[in-house]
Amino acid sequence: MHFTTADTSSNDVVERDFTLGDIPGVLWSPVSGSGHLPLVLMAHSGGQHKRAPGIVARAHRFVTGCGAAVAAIDAPGHGDRPRSNEFEQQIAGLRQAQQTGAPVSTIVAGLHTWLAAQAVPEWRATLDALRNVPELGIEGRVGFWGIMQGTGIGVPLAAVEPRICAAIFGCLGQESLTDAAEQITVPIEFLLQWDDELVDRASGLALFDAFGSTEKTLHANAGGHTGVPRFEIDSATRFFARHLGTGTAPA
Amino acid sequence: MHFTTADTSSNDVVERDFTLGDIPGVLWSPVSGSGHLPLVLMAHSGGQHKRAPGIVARAHRFVTGCGAAVAAIDAPGHGDRPRSNEFEQQIAGLRQAQQTGAPVSTIVAGLHTWLAAQAVPEWRATLDALRNVPELGIEGRVGFWGIMQGTGIGVPLAAVEPRICAAIFGCLGQESLTDAAEQITVPIEFLLQWDDELVDRASGLALFDAFGSTEKTLHANAGGHTGVPRFEIDSATRFFARHLGTGTAPA
Q1: CA-nearest residue of chain A to B227?
Q2: How far A125 CA lies from chain B's nearest CA (Å)?
Q3: What is the mean pLDDT of residues B24-46?
């Protein structure tokens, strides 16, 4: 793991770029925190990248509100990573279905399954590496945040990664994810958009239902696919503060 | 409106008993707040009363967390109020159905409709009266909190009372409430228990769906009818702080 830049210009948050092999990532952490930091892994949505505005905004809130470190990496074919022929073919199939008005949920689920096969080991390697830099002090509990494609990758990840002890998912249906969701037993906050034009309501409710967790909360908000209300950032911050602790940084 | 006692012993909250005609109530307000207080009306659940532990705990949080005044009154036949023959008959019918294992949702809906016919004008008169005591300083926005029977009364109330500008309902299905819910357009937070043994999941989701509000959030938590998690009190406090303002008391 190589750290390439460090910037502390904004809001008491240190922002570092890193690479792990060919995976580019960003780590946000408290300026004043040290030792036993919790860590939140943040996976971006489809077509986005590790520094998408929603990722950056939430990362800053989790650092300042929970005293956590936050890591984001580019998914395969996203952000600064090359797009393989196979990835291009998957995207072309998705675009074609969208243009003809065909239902895309099965195609999206197939794309997520293909991405997760690469991204799950990448996330686990990133977690290993971040834990192995003692100077970072990332020794606390680990959470996961990812909606849409971030859920398509995060549910299979949380199903096999025992270090993840709390997760926020959402804005995706059950297609291809039911078996993995049933294996997850840690606390879950699950976002749905009640009037989502891309995710079938019943399929989203079925995915929430499938999680094996005894503590799980569905937050369903009126509005369309991209309309998750800003107050859900507050809720996510409190969810992670409750389950991960608050590090040694000022809350 | 007559105030009978005032006690400031706990937690910077003034607690006053009052009567309005034959309706007994309690008003909680900030010790240090004055002028332009928001108000939260709190309706208790079936078989409970104005000073049930869940009511008192939330009232204190809304006072200290939002700088609001909070009012609770006994529903007809509940708490310190006499039980009429008609009320006794309704309860006997409910008990009989529970003992025979018959579905009770229709009977409960009938009881709530009967209660709401009396309780809605009682709540409106209470709101009028609290606004007409200038010394109380209750001049801010008005919210409503009530789950279970509190929703059976609160939905018809909010449908006709334009001063209510934000409401928390939950743990009840759509039976008899759909028409009133469709008339409500203010922001709503709606609680459901995902494994509720008394409220049918589809009926609860249908009630959430029915609200006419453009801002509405469903919080569905794993667990049975009485298992609403404690962290929902935090969420309710933030919901009211967002929509009612925070009065002049320290937040």
Answers
A1: A215
A2: 32
A3: 91
- Is a pLDDT exceeding 70 seen at residue A34? no
Answer whether A7's CB lies under 8 Å from A22's CB. no
For residue B74, give its domain range. Answer: 2-244
- Residue A49 covered by a domain: yes
Rounded CA gap, B246 and B248, in Å?
Answer: 6
CA pseudo-torsion sign A71, A77, A83, A84:
positive
Instruction: Provide the domain count of chain B.
Output: 1
**CATH code (residue B127):** 3.40.50.1820
In a domain? residue A249: no
- Cα(A122)–Cα(A119) distance, integer angstroms: 5
Task: Tell me what the pLDDT averaged over chain A comes to.
Answer: 94
In a domain, A251, yes or no: no
Q: What is the DSSP string of A118-171?
A: HHHHHHHHHHHHHHT-GGG---S-EEEE--THHHHHHHHHHHH-TTEEEEEEES
ipTM given for this complex = 0.91
> Are A194 and B229 inside 8 Å of each other by CB?
no
Residue B251 lies in a domain: no
Residue B168 to chain A, least CA–CA distance (Å): 14
- Mark which residues 138-197 of B lie under 8 Å from A by CB: 194
pTM of the model: 0.93
Inter-residue contact B139 to B105 (CB < 8 Å): no
- Closest C-alpha to A161, from A176, A137, A141: A141
Q: Which of A58, A22, A53, A21 is nearest to A41 (CA)?
A: A58
* Cβ contact, residue pair B222, A217, below 8 Å: yes
